[in-house]
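Anyone up for a design puzzle?
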């Protein structure tokens, strides 16, 4: 192949079809007409504003807000919570009293932090003013729960009962020895303690025995005996 022709062909990862006359002994196709080469096109990822992050947060009259740089403190009738924001986002108080979480940079991480910290901020405001709760259900013969001082004691089929100390800031109620209600103003702490109760005896898929969330749907499996015809 002439040097001018070889150097004029753009580099491509695509294999050229044979569309001309072959050069004997070289195995190279001499192109007889124009060939369109596929080129790699650079695309730009657009970081759209988070659908959750752009929503304002209403602050009740009984909730006090304190802001200091990237730090936010929220105090209400049920308690006080604090949060430090990453450099990608910041929180602002508008003249109307609404709180808004805004992005500082247009990056993928900033977009993720935008929605996440808006949700965390809203949970703080709702938590100190109204509170949250998580309900669990004990399913199984002999499974029961009782309160002893600051501890919750679970009978879950083990050789000995499980005793757990209730963390500060949380309240626990037991109804009919089989229903547990964990409540408080810190949604994250509520979820963590409820999960720690559940992990002692997660619900099994055959009979549904165990500790489950009240709104949890257990996917049941058919036992081997049920498969026999």
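Challenge accepted. My sequence:
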């Amino acid at each position: 192949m002439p040097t001018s022709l070889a150097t004029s062909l753009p580099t491509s990862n695509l294999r050229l079809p044979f569309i001309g006359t072959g050069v004997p002994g070289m195995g190279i196709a001499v192109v007889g007409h124009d060939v369109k080469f596929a080129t790699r096109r650079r695309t730009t990822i657009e970081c759209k504003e988070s659908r959750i992050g752009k929503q304002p947060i209403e602050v009740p009259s009984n909730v006090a807000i304190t802001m200091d740089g990237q730090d936010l403190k929220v105090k209400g009738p049920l308690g006080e919570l604090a949060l430090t924001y990453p450099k990608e986002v910041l929180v602002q108080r508008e003249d109307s009293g609404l709180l808004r979480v805004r992005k500082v940079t247009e990056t993928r991480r900033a977009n993720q932090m935008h929605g996440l910290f808006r949700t965390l901020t809203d949970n703080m405001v709702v938590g100190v003013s109204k509170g949250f709760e998580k309900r669990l259900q004990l399913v199984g013969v002999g499974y029961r729960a009782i309160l002893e001082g600051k501890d919750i004691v679970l009978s879950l089929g083990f050789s000995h009962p499980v005793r757990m100390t209730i963390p500060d800031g949380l309240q626990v109620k037991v109804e009919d020895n089989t229903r547990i209600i964990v409540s408080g103003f810190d949604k994250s702490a509520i979820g963590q303690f409820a999960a720690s109760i559940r992990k002692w005896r997660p619900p099994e898929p055959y009979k549904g025995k165990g500790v489950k969330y009240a709104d949890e749907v257990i996917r049941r499996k058919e036992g081997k005996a049920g498969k026999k015809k």
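A detail worth pointing out: The chain is about 20% helix and 30% strand.
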